[in-house]
User: Fold these one by one.
Assistant:
Number 1:
Amino acid sequence: MRLSEIKELLRCEVLTGEDNLSVDITEVVASDGMSEILAFAKSKELMITGLTNIQSIRTADIAGVSAVIYCRGKRPDKKIVEFAAQKRIPVLVTDMVMFDICGILYNKGLKGVS
Amino acid sequence: MPAELLREEFFIQGRNFEKAGEVSSEIKTILRDLGIDPPTVRRLVIVAFEGEMNVVMYAERGVLTLILTEEDIVLEIKDEGPGIEDIELAMKEGYSTASDEMREMGFGFGMGLSNMKKNADELRIESEVGKGTSVFARISLNTHG
């Protein structure tokens, strides 16, 4: 599924990477624990987290995920969005909670990484 | 001993969460520019990042040395910190001595050392309580990639 479709499904706002929403997503990694994301991500996943600090983007970069969605209406600082833009990682935000996000995406056929 | 192609030292400032991860990002760039294959770079950088975070979270300061040979990539991370009392216990997934502050940063859930072990071909930890910890990680260049 394209990131642009996920954006609509989850009613996301795009903070950076508007030109990069055609990327195809098949797997998702969702956690507030960065080591957990590093442990399971195999690269190219969609990362969902409620952690909005600089480490979330560093983790996304090192894990090699395709995009980051911040849940629960949490918004990262401007400099963190700029950092993501520099790393060319699309960043989206949604008011939805992580459980609902995962449920919706799972229903649409996306799989978690394990 | 295979010949060293590159040896570089990086300073890690303890408790500086803002800069935490910068060294690992730099290493990622260096290895990528050298043409090391992406899966190997990824594994190495996960080891470096977890190691760097451990220094930032627990120690006063540390030095990470990156050594590239024709056969492997080695990371040595030596810190001046509290040390680890029971290394075997610390290696256990889920075991953590992290503070709330560390957890708020998204770390300290007891997966760091096991992540390092998973991604390295060889991982050795030496520690002296009250003095510091040294981590030695090696990733082979010919078996993966």
Note: Chain A touches chain B through 20 residues (CB under 8 Å).
Number 2:
Amino acid sequence: MIAALGLLLGIIAGLVFAPDVPLSLQNYLPIAVVAALDAVFGALRAYLDGIFDDKVFVVSFVSNVVVAAAIVYLGDQLGVGSQLSTGVVVVLGIRIFSNVAAIRRHVFHA
Amino acid sequence: MADTRTGTPTASDEPDAGRRLPEHVTTPLLTLITARSMDEDYAHVAQKRAFAGDARPRAVRPHWSSFLAIAALGVMAAVVAVQTDREAPANELSRAALVQQIDTRSDDVRALQADVARLTRFNASVASNSTRTQTELGDAETRVRRAELTTGFSAVHGPGVRITVDNRPGDEVDGEVLDEDLATLVDGLFEAGAEAVAINDQRINALGGIRNTNRAVHVNGRPVNAPYTVSAIGDPRTLQARLVETYQGQQWFGRVNNFGFVYEAENVDDIRLPAAPERVLRDVIELDAEPYGGPAQEGSSP
């Protein structure tokens, strides 16, 4: 409940303030969002498994976002930014899908 | 070192041989990603708590820090969505500009292809014109060669008769061969069927002439000296006989008898005659040429 409320508040805040993203950050923000989604789905699965932990979630959230952005930044510096972005999105996408599958098993028992 | 290893295994090698590689090394990458999609830390922390005997409620509820993290996700997602939405018109605009450029370039390509087709057709027509002109040029060259052959403006060879004429032996003026004597002989030869005649290698044609200047004979404006060699290309079987029959031939032989000229004739299988010298025409103008300023301004050679 508190999570849904936070998500809603965040979205509203983002829509209301809608800050202009600096050009230098434009490549990293979408990757950061995907990484954060991965952390959130992992947390949701842990919650349903009954092993959720605030601290672990926050640490994994922040580290996911930072590491994903750092990998893409490194790729940009090496001239393979788009390829590394694709790699990061593929790995995070696989994790998100398998987490969602586990959540589905919990919710629907199927 | 290697010997000791292969020879007698030491006690320290035994555990190495039996040790298995760790699971995260042997598992394929995709399987590993799928299996560990949830952060291991959750399980790790839960295990630690269970060891510590910390009996927490089964479902631990998220607190304010999780709330903040999720709110951050919401903000980021909203900002990215807004940003993408803002850039959409610009992207659409640049896409439209690109489409327009493609259309323009396609039109250019079409125009250029039409040009190519037009130029190809033009090229083909020019090539066919060129072929036709080449053919006409060849025809004209053939006609010129034939005309040169018949008018004496090209070197020729063929069978014929070589006649040697000389003054009467002695030193008398009466016994000298004059221009009109040679002209009579040449006229007789042509009448008898000769096709080309030359006197001392001076070819006789319509524009040439045989003239006396004082006592010297000039053919084509150049002096020739006795003995005169009159070479005539024609049928060697009939030429001499027909020469006797012609009026000019009879005139000539009459003079030979009267004045006592030396006359010797022999048939030759192959006589080579040079071309007559070209003469610049001053008054003759081509019928279809411009009288002034045209190609025939200086007169044209036949």
Note: Chain A has one domain: 23-108.
Number 3:
Amino acid sequence: MNTPQRKQWMSVLARASFSELQARWQALQLTSDYQVIRAPEIGLAQVRARMGATGRPFNLGDVTITRAVVRLAGGELGYSYLCGRHKPHAELAALIDALMQTRDCHELLDKELITPLAAIKAEQAEGYRREVAASKVDFFTMVRGEDE
Amino acid sequence: MTMITTAFADATHDSQICFRRLLTAMSEPGTRVELDRAGHFGSLSAGCVQTLLTLADSGTRVWLSPSLSRDQAVLDNLRFHVAAPLVERASDADFAVVSQADPAACEALLQALPTGCEEYPDQGATLLIETDSLARGVEVSLSGPGIPDVRRIRLGQLPEALVRYLNKREASFPLGIDLMLVCGRELVAIPRTTRVEV
């Protein structure tokens, strides 16, 4: 399996809004037999940061994380880790991760679910960047002639 | 392909149920309890699996007998569900598990397992031994705390070293190791306080 690709789709599944994800999932009408290996559970992770991206690392705070693991009848294990406390989201994301590893469903899911969700995510990120860029202020100093 | 399978369906309540039954087994030595909340991992019996799921975690070191530590399904599942560090040396272990296939491992193991110290007798190890039956085989009489008079039970085919050890266990209380004998889903405990006559 291709790890960078899997990383990318797991990230898309974790960051997508649950309503979008669920709507697209239900539209596909896929049914699959799966076992819950690790029922969705909530925990905490500490987030570290650096001041100005260059300073010494410090503990910014904690985020809640929900994780789940499911196993398909064929033995594929699907994992999910996401921010927040949405258990159905974690279970669905884990199931889709498992199905993405099967040859039968990979293309369909990639085309109908992962790509559009990734596009929405990219668009939102772009919108946010534009919003920030619009309010950007450049500071500069006029030369007042003291140096001459 | 990893061999990970399911453990407790409802981790909180299933482990509480198993904990209560293990407590019964330990406080009334010789009482047979049944653990029926999860299945086996590879060649590791359901009783041992549930005991470890209930009592062990990332802070307890587990030693496995040779045939178990070669079984990938056992290793994968213990790492995933229990997350306990697996140790090579029995002298580092908090829990030791001996499979029926490794009776020869007992002799050195019983010498090596930690028995705790006067200040911290709780650091003595717990030894889980898989046996073929809890209704036939070696008969022992148990007496001591938690037993009204004498309790006679059968423990199946036991490794000889274990029989010798039980018969003349040093009276070193509060130090010692606690024993659990497991047959499938059933379990009998012989804690360090119990006097055993084979």
Note: Chain B touches chain A through eleven residues (CB under 8 Å).
